[in-house]
Amino acid sequence: MTTVSMTVNGKAVSGDVEPRTLLVQFIREQLRLTGTHVGCDTSQCGACVVHVNGNSVKSCTMLAVQADGADVTTIEGLADGDTLHPMQEAFRDNHGLQCGFCTPGMVMSAVDLLQKNPKPSEHEIREWLEGNICRCTGYHNIVKAVQQAAGV
Fold first, then answer.
1. Which residue ranges does the record assign to the 2Fe-2S ferredoxin-type domain (predicted)?
2. Which of 43, 56, 108, 142 is the most exposed place for a label (fewest CB within 10 A)?
């Protein structure tokens, strides 16, 4: 076992993990933050996206030991109490979710996009979200949600 320590959603956390433990497993199983979803186990769907040191990362492709000392934000860390993050509001306002399974990863990826490119074109939004799969929405309302959050 190895001890890992990191900041998750602004709170210092630590835990003992096997060296092969994925970051998504640590987040869900040890920290009990279940908003980060496990969809495919192969890095294809994007449901597990979190931010590590400010960058979106598929947490099923990163070991918990690789995040030792990192600053991690999960979907639970976006809202401010009962006040949704603007991206979460935009997804709600534009019906950018249906079953909701992909939503945490989509939102986290979209937040990262706007941090890097505050006024993306529709093409840039679609290209950025390419690594996130939604089986329900057809992506149109997701793109509209990102546009709303970006003010474009």
1. 2-78
2. 43
Decide if 81 is inside a domain. no
**What are the backbone dihedrals phi and psi of residue 83, each rounded to the nearest 5 degrees, phi first?**
-95, 115
Q: What angle do CA 71, 54, 1 make, to 5 degrees?
A: 35
Tell me the pTM.
Answer: 0.93
Q: Which residues contact 41 (CB under 8 A, 6 or more apart)?
A: 60
Q: Render pLDDT for 101-114 as a digit per residue (tens, 0 to 9).
A: 999 999 999 999 99
Give residue 119's domain range.
86-150
Report how far apart, in Å, the C-alpha atoms of 46 and of each of 3, 38, 95, 103 are: 27, 9, 19, 9
**Per-residue DSSP letters for 88-104?**
HHHHHHTT--SS-SSHH
Name the one residue in this structure whose structure tokens are 């991690």: 72
Do 68 and 10 lie in one domain? The reply is yes
